[in-house]
Hints:
This protein is α/β, with parallel strands linked by helices and 333 residues long. The chain contains 15 helices and ten strands. Its main location: periplasm.
Amino acid sequence: MYGKITRRIALALSFAMLAGPALAADRTVTIGYQTDIEPSKIAQAEGRYEKASGWKINWRKFSTGAEVIAAMASGDVQVGFTGSSPLAAGITRGLPLQTFFIAAEIGSAEALVVRNGSNINSPQDLIGKKIAVPFVSTTHYSLLAALKHWNISPQQVTILNLAPPEIAAAWQRGDIDAAYIWDPALGKVAKTGRVLTTSAEVRSWGSPTFLAWVARNDFAQAHPDFLVTFAKVTGEVNAEYRKDGANWAANSPQVREIARISGSDPADVPALLRGTTFPLLSEQSGQTLLGGGTATALADTSRFLKDQKRIDEVLPDYRPTVTASVVQQAIGH
Length: 333
């Protein structure tokens, strides 16, 4: 399955430069999103991006970041939401993308859950078990990093490449012993499982992951004003969460909107939001994020993926694939 994803991205890349920007004269943009729990879902649900920019937005839902990256490579999607691992893999292979906003520094919103009754009481009990994870995702990276931390070789477990909906179904059938996943699948498997570790803990071990908004280079060059407006709206909704999110409950309108767009159980949303950091607009260009930390994290992730034989090469410098200019303009917009 991983090979199929790799070939699909490579094929898309081969046509990317010929296809050119998938831009419409009537100010229409296609944006790829995923089901992760984060505040921008509120702005998406309420149409804030359209109102602020004056653009028509075609929102396309994807199950994994690898799918988002493949669609952006082909030009079908101009702006996308993806995790650090598929992003690192994509830009290392030469995809014409730039990161312009860090949506989230992942914490407990992504977790490795073990099935009740699977006799997995400690990390070493994973040996010989079946673990499901979407390949080339942030959870895949975190799983491999966790196994390395526990001195468990990936060859000592069976790692299955399944998309989130497939993981939920496989869990229900009893086909897998553990899964490293995000919501809504996380909420479903956690009902009959136990969290063994989270991406917050894996971050503390030196392997951080993040979620980002990225744009095709051609779209960014042709329509910088749209990205500035997009960043401003995203920053505003992140600020709303930073200010009032502690009071958001399952019946709060904001939580209901996030749950509707992501397909999650509203009861799961507040805790998952608390498990993740959503940087404010004023924090984006700092040294830990777009000012340097993001490029470093992409380089570190790429080196890890190369060590795991997920990619063949590592770029000498990832800084050209990250820009702070969009958020800087949004602050003064």
